[in-house]
Amino acid sequence: MVGYRYLGNSGFKISEITLGNWVTHGSQVGDDAAIKTVHAALDAGITTFDTADTYANTAAETVLGKALEGQRRESLEIFTKVYFPTGPMGPNDTGLSRKHIMDSINGSLKRLGTDYVDLYQAHRFDYETPLEETFQAFADVVRQGKALYIGVSEWTAEQLREGHALAKQLGIQLISNQPQYSMLWRVIEGKVVPTSEELGISQIVWSPMAQGVLSGKYLPGQPVPEGSRATDEKSGATFIKRFLRDETLEAVRRLKPIADEAGLGMPQLAIAWVLQNPNIAAALVGASRPEQLADTVKASGVTLDADTLAAIDEALGDEVFSDPENTYEVSPKQRLV
């Protein structure tokens, strides 16, 4: 079964492998398959589910709500996010203004079929809204009982520090950040993780398999597989391009004997690797078919020894992205509509 970890400096526990539905529910797969996948996650011991209002323009939340219908709410941890455009994408259908946050939380709760979410996350930093306005709205959402905790996604160390201070002043808890993190993408290690450790903020990391590259299915000198994420712009093709250099794919091939020696599959090795970092509360995984989760959950509870970790670093060499300056390039400087 899947293990649990505390989220930030709180008494709240989440499953260390969390099911996300960014490019699957409401978009890549049909509702029946999506619902079966959620049920398979529950059967495997995953009780934490992450979505966002912008995924499939709100459809992903609706599918997740249907999938969790009839489950004991107290036994689930449901996360969603706000920031990116939704609906007809008018001028107030995006960002972290008070209006958009208040409209969005009500819409998310209705679609998810729940009275509250456990974690409500700022999907990006909003340079066009005063941070005081954003956190006052978040504080009101918490006090209204519509969210229990507040988190953010892809914020810089400085933004986390400022947001944490405002949350503290308002008497609410900012307990998480949701950045990209994998063996190949380690940009949070330089500034974001040390700052988060100081402030009592955990990471819930997305793309622990580097958009599927660390599964080993992409081969140097070969065309990308048909139907893979690299061929579908809606499924993160933009994100995966940086990892499709032949030199990177050759480095990933060198991980296979390391995984074999550890008694793990390549996806398990990738997920187990991110969970070795004590600041990581959960690895977000996606699945388009129920059977994909059977191997994924085996990464929970795995301890990689020092020799294995050193061998991974040696195999990947210079193909690792680790410049903390990359954390400043994620949030758009202007809203998208």
Automatic annotation (TrEMBL):
Name under which the protein is recorded:
Predicted oxidoreductase
Question: What Gene Ontology molecular-function terms does this entry list?
Answer: oxidoreductase activity
Tagged with keyword Nucleotidyltransferase = no
Q: Which keywords label this protein?
A: NADP, Oxidoreductase
Family the UniProt entry places it in: Belongs to the shaker potassium channel beta subunit family.
Note whether Oxidoreductase occurs among the keywords: yes
One GO CC annotation: cytosol
Q: Which residues form the NADP-dependent oxidoreductase domain?
A: 16-315
| InterPro entries noted in UniProt | K_chnl_volt-dep_bsu_KCNAB-rel (IPR005399), NAD(P)_OxRdtase_dom_sf (IPR036812), NADP_OxRdtase_dom (IPR023210)
